[in-house]
TrEMBL record, chains A, B:
Catalytic activity: octanoyl-CoA + H2O = octanoate + CoA + H(+); (5Z,8Z,11Z,14Z)-eicosatetraenoyl-CoA + H2O = (5Z,8Z,11Z,14Z)-eicosatetraenoate + CoA + H(+); (9Z)-octadecenoyl-CoA + H2O = (9Z)-octadecenoate + CoA + H(+); hexadecanoyl-CoA + H2O = hexadecanoate + CoA + H(+)
Enzyme Commission identifier(s): 3.1.2.2
Family of the protein in this entry: Belongs to the THEM4/THEM5 thioesterase family.
Gene responsible for this protein: LOC106492217
Membrane topology type: Peripheral membrane protein
Organism: Apteryx mantelli
CDD domains cross-referenced by the UniProt entry: PaaI_thioesterase (cd03443)
Transmembrane segments: none
Top EC class of this enzyme: hydrolase
Keywords: Apoptosis, Cell membrane, Cell projection, Cytoplasm, Fatty acid metabolism, Hydrolase, Lipid metabolism, Membrane, Mitochondrion, Mitochondrion inner membrane, Transit peptide
Thioesterase domain mapped to chain residues: 154-226
PANTHER family the record matches: ACYL-COENZYME A THIOESTERASE THEM4
Subcellular localization(s) per the UniProt record: Cell projection, Ruffle membrane; Cytoplasm; Mitochondrion inner membrane; Mitochondrion intermembrane space
Principal subcellular localisation of the protein: membrane
The protein's name in its UniProt record: Acyl-coenzyme A thioesterase THEM4
Length: 251, 251
């Protein structure tokens, strides 16, 4: 375990992640307090939100998370204590991700699901949690692909890799430019990702030119020894007026 | 309806699809006989396979398919009659897509699902059917994104678009080069795809250089008036020895 923590430290240090002290992680439980999904709400478990009638936050440990996933989660949670990194909550309806002031634009449909949260069984779909570092314009996602994401036998489908990269890099673009849409996503698939493994998706906004946000991303194994994928993306910043027009023209 | 059929005819004619006679489509049922998913098996309905203890073929009409989807399906089915186009069956376990002789390499896991068939409820996930034209090195996919594929409110997630493109273009690469893996996928997202709409994903192998297969793809509305996405891809042909080594190194 120490070797793995050391390897993780080295892998992340290469990308400039701060404060990774080997051995600080908890074991099989989420030891540290996580930032609340909503102000004032405790959220040490995934069920916390739903118990209080709030939307359930899925970016919290559950029984399907492997030891690697829990260790990484706890290490990132430690890094949130100084406020530089923040955990991003995750709900299964996109409207729960949108500020209250903007929700009036949309009618909430109960039959829709955010694509990444469309598979109910814990551990079968996208198990992931994202952490944001605003000052570095960076979002890191811890991702454990489940058995329902299969492409080649035993490995995650290229579309599921594209999906988690689009979401991670998109969250990074949103943190920089607010409401955005993907204009281009280009992915080099280097090594396949085994189902049930854990990978780090590390995205960064490289440049902003007017309404264009250019980003890049790497997907690596926890020990940093395997590069699974690299990606670049262009996102376009939308203002509310343009977004409404675009929506109207497509309906 | 005639206008739509005419628009479809024009849209597909631009891409060189043969024999689209306006008005030939059926209404709310799959009128024509479909090519059997397995030799000798009738497959006029999605349940045909499972009734005989075979894997269920999901690339057949179900109650969630819209009129646009059914019309398109029937038009493509008509085009299979001269043997130039073939419908590609679709199962929810990847091993059912692999020739018997290659299955010995893999252990069948009952808990895995092909990513695109991971959502059980009809109409909620990826509703699609692909048609192959071997002589044109081309695969066209009819795609109706369901309510569980949401990204921006009311629209298909960019990851779900990438997934159906990767699968369509991948099927095209397989038809040209056998066992392949995605090396690069680059997508330009032009206009968002409304949930429940129907789009055509039209892919083509442009060039083969050694083990490299270069492909391109367009995603358009049924009437051909809206370009939703364009993509290019590079797939690498794998031989069995290399594939086994790659699998072993990742496990």
């Amino acid at each position: 375990m120490w070797r793995r923590c050391g390897a993780l430290g080295r892998a992340l240090a290469l990308r400039g992640l701060p404060g990774l002290a080997p051995g600080a992680a908890g074991r099989r439980t989420a030891s540290g307090p996580s930032p609340p999904a909503r102000p004032g709400l405790p959220c040490g478990t995934a069920a916390a939100g739903s118990q209080l009638g709030q939307s359930k936050d899925y970016a919290l440990p559950n029984a399907s998370w492997s030891q690697d996933m829990l260790d990484l989660y706890n290490r990132f949670l430690d890094m949130t204590k100084d406020g530089l990194w923040k955990r991003i909550p995750s709900y299964n309806n996109i409207l729960d991700h949108i500020p209250e002031s903007m929700k009036l634009t949309y009618e909430k449909r109960k039959d829709t699901r955010l694509f990444l949260r469309s598979i109910d069984a814990e551990g079968a779909g996208f198990e992931y949690v994202m952490f944001l570092n605003t000052s570095e314009k960076r979002v890191v996602c811890l991702f454990q692909p489940g058995s329902y994401l299969e492409g080649h036998p035993g490995f995650a489908h290229g579309g599921s890799i594209a999906t988690i990269i689009d979401s991670t890099i998109g969250s990074c673009a949103i943190s920089v430019a607010g409401k955005v849409m993907t204009a281009n996503l280009s992915i080099d698939y280097v090594n396949p990702v085994p189902l049930g493994s854990v990978v780090l998706v590390d995205s960064k906004a490289d440049k902003v030119e007017g309404r264009k946000v250019f980003l890049s991303c790497k997907m690596q194994s926890v020990d940093g020894n395997t590069l699974h994928a690299e990606a670049t993306a262009l996102f376009i910043q939308l203002d509310a007026t343009k977004a409404q027009k675009q929506q109207a023209s497509c309906q």
